[in-house]
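Trying the structure run again after the queue cleared.
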Amino acid sequence: MLQERIHPAICKARPRLEEWFRSYTKDLYLPFYSSFDIRDSGFKVVPVDANLYPAGFNNICLQDKDAAVDLVKNYLQKSYGNNLRRVALFTEEHTQNLYYWDNVFTLEHFLKEAGYEVRVVMPKGFEGSPLKIISASGHEVQVHALERKGENISV
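Done. Tokens:
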């Protein structure tokens, strides 16, 4: 299978690939995170779908979780400067997937550990007090409603 040949080659070339990626992206504005579904037919690998609200932060290995807070902080400082203090973490509106909320809980944790005040928000769908959602792992996530006043949004 193609994956069995590509993976060792990528691992071997990782330092060169990372340097190439850094030099290629240094002047680009990249999204904070994104997700793409990939299909492997055995002889070709292609992206088939981009996700606006990807999940998976809860599945990051421990080694990468250790680095995640610094990566989050570095990205936000580079993209928005050192004066950023508050972050609105937008979520899906209509998910029944409790593991998705483990993902949100983990990402909220990374942002808070990086020193930001974080509000988990839903673009629309409810009014009033924060919703308390219990994730598949038993973590509580408070989700706030957004209020739009003209061109301004507040929580």
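The first strand starts at residue 35 and ends at 40. Worth checking whether this holds up in the mutant runs.
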